[in-house]
Amino acid sequence: MARRKRDYYVVLGVSRDVSELEIKRAFRELARKYHPDVNSDDAGEKFREINEAYAVLSDKDARARYDRWGHPDDGSGGLSAVVDAAQDIINDVFRRRKSKAKGKDIRYTLEITFEEAAFGVSKTITLPDTTNNRPRELTVVIPAGMKEGTVKTIKGEGEQGKGGAAAGDLHVQIRIAEHVTFRRDGLDVRTDLTITFAQAALGDVLEVPTLDGDVKMRIPPGTQPGGVFRIRGRGVPQAAGKHAPRGDHLVTVQVLVPTELTPRQRELIEELARSEGQESDPGGGPGKKRRLLDRVRSLLDE
User: Fold this and answer.
1) Which of 50, 204, 255, 270 fits as disulfide partner to 225, beta carbons 3.0 to 4.6 Å?
2) Which residue did the predictor score with more confidence, 95 or 251?
3) How far apart are CA 173 and CA 151, in angstroms?
4) Across all residues in the chain, what is the average pLDDT?
5) What pLDDT sits at residue 3?
6) pLDDT range class, residue 173, cuts 50, 70, 90
7) What whole-number distance in Å separates Cα of residue 162 and Cα of residue 155?
8) Sign of the CA dihedral 67, 71, 76, 82?
9) Cβ contact 113:96 at 8 Å
10) β-pairing verdict for 188-196 and 249-256
């Protein structure tokens, strides 16, 4: 026994008093949803049923006959021709849509210096242009505080689309060149500073390289290897501008221990070791130790 056809209005999901414009809108939505090119889950029968319903309800005379008499005979040649015509129209729409293709995205790796990443920079890059078969230039703005590996997307700067479709996008990956001295730690900048044994013991004032140039830093007496000193506000800016908040510059001190000593240097260091080993020395006050350290410093600085 043949399956009974569903009501055409039910098939399109509309009421019987619906306008021609609403019938057309409902048909388009269902056709997009159940077209075999976009829905492969056995949608062929559903799509045929939608086309058949639209073929009748979109024709004024055919709709009037349907409203009065119901479904026509299954062998109606006129109805089959209308269904085939609707199918051709839908297929043509999908073919035109497929002929349009968005342009491909372009990926570009841009290397900048440590300082450029910290303070920001504008870079002009050259990209291939497949449409005109010649390169084109584009300016990329790098904001202050840029991090390694950041991908900056510029809409519509990729390859041109086909058939009037939109162009692709440009994805610029930022690579920061390694610095000889500086290392980044969030918004802070780290460096190592090597000092002599005498400078660590007696203290000194040294110039330290920063993003803003050399800055004087005081090394207090008795500085230990691995000690970290903070120079505030000399790190990476959080944004552009002179008054933007910045991280700090962190200096890790390394003490250079001499590998070769003169006999006199060895004698003085051994004397220092003996004096440090004495818990009490009636004749060895602070003044005597200071004179001894001064002598050690003068010899080690030679």
Assistant:
1) 255
2) 251
3) 4
4) 82
5) 62
6) very high
7) 17
8) positive
9) no
10) parallel
Is 232 exposed, middle or buried (CB count within 10 Å of its CB: 0-12, 13-18, 19+)? exposed
Q: What are phi and psi of 276, to 5 degrees?
A: -70, -25
Contacts of 86 by beta carbon, 8 Å cutoff, 6+ apart:
51, 54, 55
CA nearest 76: which of 52, 49, 50, 45? 52
Please determine, for residue 290, whether its predicted confidence score (pLDDT) is greater than 60. no
pLDDT at 112: 96
The yes-or-no verdict on residue 186 having pLDDT over 60 is yes
Is the separation of the CB atoms in 221 and 201 below 8 Å? Answer: yes
Residues 6+ apart with CB under 8 A from 264: 299
Task: Using the structure block, give the residue that is written with the tokens 């440590």.
Answer: 114
Sign of CA dihedral 258, 263, 264, 270: positive
Q: 106-143 as b/e, with b when 16 or more CB fall inside 10 Å?
A: bebeeebebebbbbbbeeeeeeeeeeeeeeeeeebebe
- The residue ranking higher by pLDDT, 266 or 88, is 266
Cα–Cα distances (Å) from 36 to 30, 82, 174, in that order, read 12, 19, 44
187, 91 in Cβ contact below 8 A? no
119: tokens are 């303070």
Q: In the block, which residue shows the tokens 């390859």?
A: 159
Name the pTM for this structure.
0.57
DSSP annotation of 159 reads S
pLDDT at 284 (0 to 100): 47
Place of tokens 């056809």: 5
Place of tokens 């190592």: 192
User: Parallel, antiparallel, or unpaired: how do β-strands 121-127 and 228-231 relate?
Assistant: unpaired
Q: Which residue type occupies 81?
A: A
What are residue 106's DSSP bridge partners? 170
| SS3 state of residue 170 | strand
How far is CA 156 from each of CA 12, 52, 104, 163, rounded to the nearest angstrom? 39, 42, 10, 15
Q: How far apart are the first and last CA of the chain?
A: 113
